Amino acid sequence: MQLPSINHNGSEFDVVILVIPPASPMLITRNLLYTGITRAKKLLVMVGIDKVVDFMIQNVDVKRRNTGLEYKMRH
Fold first, then answer.
1. Residue 3 in 3-state DSSP?
2. CA 42 to chain centre
3. Least packed by Cβ within 10 Å: which of 41, 45, 59, 73?
4. Radius of gyration of the chain (CA)
5. The pTM is what?
6. Would you write out the chain's pLDDT as a tens digit for each of its 75 residues?
7. How many CB atoms within 10 Å of residue 29?
């Protein structure tokens, strides 16, 4: 049996199980929570600690990703 591709950037799924573990504040942001929630078409199951989810809702701090992509594309 072949597993489906893992890269589902921008995709939606009938059922999404969103596991929210305690993590660094830099990693648990509102954007990440929004992305997980908006992938569910029919059912969303969130597993985590209420306090962590509340933190994510309040954490609007967006870190700039330093991927070097612009440099790589220009050179």
1. coil
2. 18
3. 73
4. 15
5. 0.67
6. 555 555 556 689 999 999 999 998 888 999 989 999 999 999 999 999 999 999 999 998 776 666 777 788 888
7. 19
Helical H runs in 1-75? 30-38, 50-58, 69-74
Q: Distance between CA atoms of 20 and 22, rounded to whole angstroms?
A: 7
* Spatial CB neighbours of 62, under 8 Å, sequence gap ≥ 6: 29, 31
- Report the alpha-carbon distance of residue 7 to residue 64 in Å, rounded: 22
CA nearest neighbour of 30 among 63, 60, 10: 60
CA quadruple 52, 57, 58, 60: dihedral sign: positive
Q: Sort residue 68 into left (φ over 0), alpha (ψ -120 to 50) or beta.
A: left
